[in-house]
Specification:
Helices cover 43% and strands 27% of the residues. The strands form 4 sheets. Strands 2-1-5-4-3 form a 5-stranded antiparallel beta sheet, with helices on both faces. Strands 7-6-10-9-8 form a 5-stranded antiparallel beta sheet, with helices on both faces. The protein is rod-shaped, with a radius of gyration of 43 Å. By secondary structure, the chain is α+β, with helices and mostly antiparallel strands.
Length: 484
Amino acid sequence: MSNNKPLNHLFASLSFEALFLSKKGICIAQNQAAKDIFGYTDEEAIGRPGTDWIHPDDRALVAQKMQENYVQPYKVLALRKNGTSFPCEIQAKNIKHEGEKIRVTALRNITEQQNLEDKLSDKIKELEIITDSIPNSIWKAKVSKDGQISETYISSSVDQLLGQPPGTINSDWDKYFSFILPEYLDKLRETIQAGIENPGQTFTVRYQVKKADGSLAWFSSCGKGELEGDEVIAYGFTYDITAKKEKEDQLKTLMATKDKFFSIISHDLRNPFTAFMGFSELMLRQLKKGQYDNIEKYARAIYSTARSGGELLSNLLDWSRSQRGKITFRPEKINLHELVQSVLMFFEEPARSKEIKIESTIASDITLIADHNMLNTILRNLVSNAIKFSYRNTTVNLSITQQNNSVLLEVEDIGQGIEPEQQQKLFRIDSNESVPGTEEEKGTGLGLILCKEFVDKHNGQIEVESEPGKGSKFTVKLPQNTRS
């Protein structure tokens, strides 16, 4: 090497890292930096296998790289003469020199860099532990001008939110989106896109997800975008708001209940008394004049109004007690034939006034373990509605049959029916609206809501089938033995 000035000059000018020349894997030269770093004199170094400068754990790797003529830098553990080791970056390349193949190898001590990387790695692990311990999920994504998403990150706590095994999402944006109910995806994407197009502005979106156990949960994602050159970095939090949403819905229902209650008291409950006063006044005038022709008509009108008002008041009191948890569930053995007959007797007059025939099909020996008052209220409201919404001179069919361990109660009318969009609101206090009957009979919409509550207390089901202009059929399915 002493007679080769170009190589001598090369070694002298690259003193920041250890340089070695080797031929057929044997060291033929080293620079001063190599002597200082590894501690070998030229006499000790020349003629030694190049792998002597490498820790035994990494020698096989280096030998493989030499054989492959690998030219890219890679990390290994280097070994000093005194037996101590340190991390280094190694890069080598074969060259032709005076007709011979010489391998030039550079080793750079990266102890300081490795220490920094280790510290950074520790900090990242600490941050991951912190983010994973937070019940909410933290997320980040880089979005380019053309909408391409890259460098996505979703903290692993999202798996716990979804009830999935650890590592399920693994920062996969599409995988996370697969758990979101399809009807919310467009809204979610539109909200995030709006946030990206308006950097600095916070965006929030609510949606439902399907968890591992099949249950549905409400999530809320809140975040904002920040400009970084031509790209936007979007970041934020996602958290489970199911409990909060349930409380909001409860509050909404309570407010609707309050509004409904005051509406009934201020309007619907006042109407019967107005009718009483009007017809009573007419009767008094007729009696004073000795005219009796219309007395029976006025008496029937007062009776009908009183019966309607009494029915309304009964529903209102039952509903009020139900809302306050004041109704005690008292199951007992009930003969359904006897109960139906007593209910139908109550509706003989209103059915006769509209020329409606009520036909019942029920075996005399069918019994049910249920709360008598609640079941009476269910039957009374279903029959009342059937009469109210039936066309004049038609038939209302009431049937009760036994089906395995359940009892099926069906009330069917021929009348104005119910629009499909209205069917979804029948049993909800927050969206229920009263609809006048076929002859403008008034109501509150409270009866079906009561039916639903009382059916639920029996662990039963209530359904409606209806076609506008043709009629409706309400079906109640109750377990034959409800004890709690």
